[in-house]
Amino acid sequence: MVDLFYVAPNGTVWTGPVHGMTGALQQVSNGKVISAVSGFFGAGVVAIFGEGTDHQLWWTTRVNGTWAPWSSLGGNLTSQPAAVFRGPFSYSVYIRGSNGAVWARDHSTAGWNAWHSIGGQLYGGTGPTAAFLGGTWVMVVGANRQLYIAQLGLTGFTPAGWSTTTSPALIAIPGALVGFARGTDSVGYYHRFLSTSPGWHSMGGGLSTGLAAVAADSLSYTFGLGTDSQVYGNGGSWTTYPPAFTGWIKLTG
Description:
Layout: E1 3-7, E2 13-17, E3 26-27, E4 38-42, E5 45-51, E6 57-63, E7 66-67, E8 71-74, E9 82-87, E10 90-96, E11 102-108, E12 111-112, E13 116-119, E14 129-132, E15 136-141, E16 146-151, E17 158-163, E18 169-173, E19 176-182, E20 188-192, E21 201-204, E22 212-216, E23 219-225, E24 231-237, E25 244-245, E26 249-250
Antiparallel strand pairs: 1-2, 2-3, 4-5, 5-6, 6-7, 6-8, 9-10, 10-11, 11-12, 11-13, 14-15, 15-16, 16-17, 18-19, 19-20, 20-21, 22-23, 23-24, 24-25, 24-26
């Protein structure tokens, strides 16, 4: 089952299964955020990160169905965050800092380390996205509105071949990374980062925001707001290429 996390107009965060978003939702603890949230599920724990009204990074976890109170990780955010899970106790969160660069905090068995910069210069209002595939990959929208991607610790940011003005999404499917972005024509696009499938390709839609995505084995689920301010989802199967998409389906309202 895939859960969707939804920020209400008053800043509270709610969650529910993707296929039941028209029914009852559960509020994620108390507290408010001012931009989209990011999170992960791993080792039996759900973790959610969001930008608080003080522009610090706040997070909460759900264990055995119970949400912990929100707590601050500090920082000075200027966008939504991105989180990535690598294994038990090993995960990271990334933000656009006040200087426009990507900043990170990493968690290990010793707890959270200090904030540190991994560089870049992001387009205003956009946040990074991250995925793990034998290493941690981060994709961003540069100040020139072009997409860039880096494998942390091995490469700097290199062009990813597309233009957008909203936050992208990045997932790992078996054997490949896949990026999603809203084009300047408000249509959703995807790109599998393999030499056998170059370029960005349309997945349709009429979107008003950046995209979020999650992978479950060879399946992808992509989400965004439509022009009616409702949440839409588009499922994809990657057992063959090109992938088979369900088309955009309204999940709220």
